[in-house]
Each structure stands twice: as C-alpha cells, then as structure tokens.
Amino acid sequence: MDILLSLSATMVLAGVMLLIAAAVRLESPGAAIFRQRRAGWRGRAFVMLKFRSMRSDVDPYGGSPHSGADARLTRVGRFLRETSLDELPQLLNVLRGDMSLVGPRPLYERQAAEWDSNQRRRLDVRPGITGYAQAYGRGELPIEDKIEMDLYYVDHQSFWLDARIMVRTVLNMFFRRGDVYEKQYSRDKKHETD
Fold this sequence. Notes:
Structural class: mainly alpha
Distance between the termini: 34 Å
Number of strands: 4
Shape: globular
Strand order of the largest sheet: 1-2
Largest sheet: 2 strands, antiparallel
Strand content: 5-15%
C-alpha cells in the first residue's frame, strides 16, 4: 500500500515538486533538497529528505523554529513548512523503504539514544511522513506526549487507524489546523535547546 500510494502521489505531484524545487533555489543559494540523518526502523540510520526551508548556512541539526518569524527561515521555506509541502520529498523515502506514509516521525539519532527501553518501541515500526502525534497535536505537544502517542500507534496499528491519520493530516493541511511550529521541545529543561 505504501509503495502504490507513494508512487501514485509522486507521479501526480511531480510537476508541483519541480516548481517547489525551482522556487527554493531561486530564493536562496544552496540545494533545494535538505538531507538529514534520522533514526529509522529498528534504530537504523537513514537520510531523510525534505525541501529546504531554511538558509543553507544554518546548523542542519539546530533547534526547530518556534515561529514563522525565525530569521533562519526563507519566505518560500516558511510557506512550505506552514503547508507541510516541505515533506513531499519523503515520498521518495517511502519508495526506498526507509519510511511509511504513516508512522512515528523520525527523530535525530541523538534523541533516540536518550530513550528508555519502552520509548524505544516506537522504532518497532517504520517512521512515517505523518503520524498519530502529528495528526492530533503537531507542534503544540512536547516530545514526551508525542512519544506516548507514538507508542499508542505502535500498539494499535491498523489499516483503519492509518486511514484516520491520513484523513486528519490532509484536513490539517487544507484548513491549517494545529501549529506546525514547536512551542516547546521537551518539558525537561536540559532538552530546551534541542
């Protein structure tokens, strides 16, 4: 299902993706596609793809923007983030088998290294372009709550839950529901710079 849907979406959206890539390149120097190592299925590292939304001279592993006013964001990048169009290249990650359409969002390897054995169960499924925590909380939730929601997904994974998450994600995109910017990464102060 992942392969069929992602291949169909890639073919349908190929023109849009080319236009986005051109817009990213025209606005600021650097590659249109941003590549970053993430923790994947069973903890295996992979390179996640996104359209670049920030200037190319910023730390690729720095903290996520907390608002659209972050000076690191480009104008095109701000639009891509706020519409979630920056995630479209991850369709290629799905075709390569690194990701699924639905699953826990892949986090940095250093973040995964801090989890306990229960939290590491979120690596028992492939990471997704969208997930339960993104569909029902997005940037408003700290990582602790997102992990709990991811574990719920791992324990209750089904075709119908995936379908609900995908429908909710599309509604969030079209109606701009939920904040895409992280309000607070963690409730633990030692992680505040993440």
